Amino acid sequence: MAVYDKKSMHAEEFINDEEILETLKYAEENKNNIELINSILEKARPQKTAHGCVCKGLTHREASVLLACEDKGVIEKIYQIAEEIKLAFYGNRIVIFAPLYLSNYCVNGCVYCPYHYKNKRIARKKLTQEEVKAEVIALQDMGHKRLAIEAGEDPVNNPIEYILECIKTIYSVNHKNGAIRRVNVNIAATTVENYKKLKDAGIGTYILFQETYHKKSYLELHPTGPKHDYDYHTEAMDRAMQGGIDDVGLGVLFGLEMYKYEFAGLIMHAEHLEAVHGVGPHTISVPRIKHADDIDPNAFDNSISDEIFAKITACIRLAVPYTGIIISTRESQDVRSKLLRLGVSQVSGASRTSVGGYTEEERPHDTEQFDVSDQRTLDEIVRWLMENGHIPSFCTACYREGRTGDRFMSLCKNGQILNCCHPNALMTLTEYLVDYADSETKKIGFELIEKELDKIPNEKVKTIAKQNVEDIKKSNRRDFRF
Ligand code: SAM
């Protein structure tokens, strides 16, 4: 095994190229080694304990062997275990969020993104605080409670002060019964000092996609601008954690490089965070390149099929059982339906990927970052989730109750989810149904909530949750949480 140090703070050590290449070779050599594969699958399975369930997860090497295996029977087993893990730790809840684009000014030269500075065709826009308010009202009127804010990297147009001001504005808006209760942030890699400021502003997760872990490709795909610095970008999560943010979200933009390389890098990154900070990533996103203004996805030769995409997602579920997996509206309804069975725990809904898009009647919009495949309304998404056996959750309780980082993980591990996240999901779904849903969605939803309330194991919690649900239905009292 290549000598590398996952605890090192240097990008090229914890994402060690030699170790990834050896891992890929090992995975290829063992992809038909059924004895080894069965032992890896056994290790990945949830194990019952006195308090609930635990999962050991998998190393990047073990998970890479599963990803390399092409045997249909084994792939089916991977899918089954992915679903078991999802149900054991997250239940049938799916958390819902929407992106909010603040500004598409950008000084970087990312070759896959239409916001690259050389693109003179795309309209540039940065929301004023009044416009932020209008977008937030539009999002609240749909029923959203959780946002991920997005911005290009531009120290002059989008300095940290601007981002902080927007966060403050977002949290300050309460339209009718609406509120944004969790703002996740997807902005470029920054300093420890700025991460501290984001933490103080009350953000949820800090999200930063690695795009690719392959350094040589990374440098070519980010030829100019501050994002060109691979080490600074790759070490961002360590700085975020040093700044006090303990929920961080990783991601790879699939299609840029060979997926097996990316997968090993992604799991190594998770191992590094766990080894150094005692807590792995809160979420992992799995975006694929989409068509956009001057971007043709066919220009990238590493695109992956829907089948491979499903396998990657399921293997992530087995490798990092306590990490949420996010699938955005870049994917179609069909792909999302399939992936929801394989371990996905969060979806975006009714997204606009343009600056000011929520106050526009129609998309596309001339500032859009990429095409959205799933263009359904939030109400359609909520109904679809329920009709497919999921509970749409607008819960934002964890970080507001201080359950971040390892405290969230121990909630999962102690099997307390059914007494905590489950009632929170049902209460926030009730809020959605009462305030925003159409009559058919309401009907399906209230029936579901009734059944699901009875599944709460702790009698005291069950009684309180039922009372809260009734209160929400009868009054304007909102924001109950365990
Ligand atoms: N400027 C920040 C940064 O550098 O991380 C914010 C990121 S951007 C608003 C959000 C993500 O969109 C990027 O990290 C990238 O992975 C993804 N993205 C960019 N172009 C895309 C495309 N054509 N199709 C799909 N996703 C894309």
Question: Can I get a quick summary?
Answer:
By secondary structure, the chain is α/β, with parallel strands linked by helices. It contains 20 helices and 11 strands.
Explain this structure to me?
The chain is of the alpha/beta class and 482 residues long. The chain folds into 3 domains: 11-87, no CATH class; 92-402, Aldolase class I (TIM Barrel), CATH 3.20.20; 415-474. 46% of the residues lie in helices and 10% in strands. The chain has helices spanning 11-14, 17-29, 34-44, 60-68, 72-90, 129-142, 160-172, 192-200, 215-221, 230-234, 236-242, 259-277, 306-319, 333-340, 378-387, 397-400, 405-413, 421-436, 439-453, 459-474; strands at 47-49, 52-54, 93-103, 146-151, 182-186, 206-207, 248-251, 283-285, 324-327, 346-348, 391-393. Helix 12 links the parallel strand 7 (248-251) and strand 8. The chain binds S-adenosylmethionine (SAM).
